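Duplicate of earlier report; TIGR03086 family protein input re-posted below.
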Amino acid sequence: MSETTTASWRTLLTQAHDALRASVAGVGGGGAWDAATPCEKWSDTQVLQHATGDQIAFAAAITGGAWPSEDPFAPSGSIEGDPRAHLATGLDASARAWATVDDDAEQVPVPLPQGPMPASLAAGACALDAAVHAWDIAMATGQPSPLTPEMALPLMEVATQIVEPLRAYGAYAPALETGDDADQVTVLLAYLGRRPV
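Output:
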């Protein structure tokens, strides 16, 4: 991968984790966790449950540890306790797992149907999941977009390598068209089936 090199995949993953953490921290009270999101039929709480479960699943695939206690693709919409603490559990597990992966590992287990991938692509897949759900939560709660052009470029490179097979599983909606003048963030979101706002 030209953009998500062995020297940069750790940075990209950290940026995506930070974006998700910041979006969750920015959710206010007054029913904000019940707000509808760009993920069709899912509330903020359900997106958080899904995103946290996905991070735990990546960690479990790498380490052989515990998998999510709840199906990330059928989130209940109910979290006991602080949502931020709930997310921290997943992000901490993910970060610890990725710390055990060599920079240039050729076969990293992932919780995706494609099977093991090179470290840069596997970490990129994990980062893509965190980043897009950070955007979902931010948009649902009136926050600025956490995605930057610097993140969008390598994430788009990852997306074009992994997303198409995942659409059949309902992980991503069909891609949307963009104009020729669309910026990198818009292109990424549209490719993932999200309409930038």
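The domain at 9-149 is CATH 1.20.120.450 (Four Helix Bundle (Hemerythrin (Met), subunit A)).

Merging into the original ticket.
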